[in-house]
Write a structure and sequence with these properties.
about 230 residues, mainly alpha
C-alpha cells in the first residue's frame, strides 16, 4: 500500500474523530441542555446533567487535539500539489486551535457555577443563572471568532483538492464554498443584530458541514483508490 494511501486513511480517520466530536459538542449538547432564552431552565438542565455537560467539554478537547494533527497529515498528502498553498492551509487551521482551547475556559466557568456549592453558597440562585448564561454566551462568541479560521483554512485546502488530480474536483469546490459559508455567517452574526432571524445562517452552515463530511469519507474509503505516482 502506498504512502499516499496510508496518509489519506489516517487523515480520514482523524477527520472523522473531529467531525463526530465537533457535532457532539457544538450541536448535540447545546440542543439538549441550553435554552438561550431561559436561564433558569438552562441552569437546571446543566445542574441535573453534569456528566453530559462534562462529556461535551471533553469531546471539545478531543476535537481540537484532532484538529491539531489533521492539517499536518493533509499537508503531507497535498504538499506536492502546491507547497505554498499547503503551508497556508496548515497555518490558517492551526491558528484556530489556541483560540478554541482558550475559549473552553468559559465552559469550565459554567461548571464552577453549577457545581461548586460551598464556594457559591452566598450567591443568589438568580445571580448564578445570570452568570451561567453570561459564560455560555461568552463561549458562543468565542466559537464565532474561531469560525473565521475554521473557514479560511478550507479555501487553500479546497484549492489543493481541486488541483490535486487524485481527489474529486467537486470536493474542492465544496470546501471552498464551505469557507464562504463560514465567513458569511461570521459577518452576518457580527454586523446584523437580527441575522439569526433571517434564516440564511442554517443554509450557510450546511456548506462546510457537507464539504467536510464528504471529504472525510472520501479519504477514509475511496481514498484507497489514489493512483498518484510517488515522488
Amino acid at each position: 500500500m502506498s504512502a499516499n494511501k496510508n496518509t489519506a486513511r489516517v487523515a480520514g480517520f482523524i477527520y472523522l474523530v473531529v467531525v463526530i466530536t465537533g457535532m457532539f459538542s457544538l450541536a448535540y449538547i447545546p440542543q439538549k441542555l441550553i435554552d438561550w432564552n431561559n436561564s433558569r431552565l438552562t441552569f437546571n438542565n446543566i445542574t441535573n446533567s453534569p456528566t453530559l455537560f462534562r462529556f461535551g467539554l471533553y469531546s471539545s478537547v478531543i476535537c481540537y487535539v484532532g484538529f491539531t494533527f489533521l492539517p499536518l497529515f493533509l499537508y503531507k498528502l497535498l504538499r506536492s500539489v502546491n507547497k505554498s498553498h499547503a503551508k497556508a492551509m496548515v497555518i490558517l487551521a492551526l491558528v484556530s486551535v489556541p483560540l478554541s482551547f482558550n475559549n473552553l475556559q468559559h465552559k469550565y466557568a459554567a461548571l464552577t457555577l453549577t457545581e461548586k456549592e460551598s464556594f457559591l453558597q452566598d450567591i443568589l440562585v438568580e445571580d448564578l443563572q445570570s452568570k451561567l448564561m453570561f459564560s455560555l454566551h461568552q463561549y458562543n462568541d468565542g466559537i464565532l471568532l474561531a469560525t473565521v479560521f475554521w473557514g479560511l483554512w478550507l479555501f487553500p485546502f479546497g484549492l489543493l483538492v481541486y488541483r490535486s488530480g487524485f481527489m474529486p474536483k467537486f470536493l474542492g469546490v465544496l470546501l471552498m464554498l464551505g469557507c464562504i459559508g463560514y465567513l458569511i455567517n461570521f459577518t452576518g452574526n457580527t454586523l446584523l443584530e437580527n441575522y439569526s432571524q433571517i434564516g440564511i445562517g442554517k443554509y450557510m452552515s450546511m456548506l462546510p458541514a457537507v464539504a467536510e463530511i464528504a471529504t472525510c469519507f472520501w479519504l477514509l474509503f475511496l481514498g484507497l483508490q489514489i493512483k498518484r505516482n510517488e515522488k
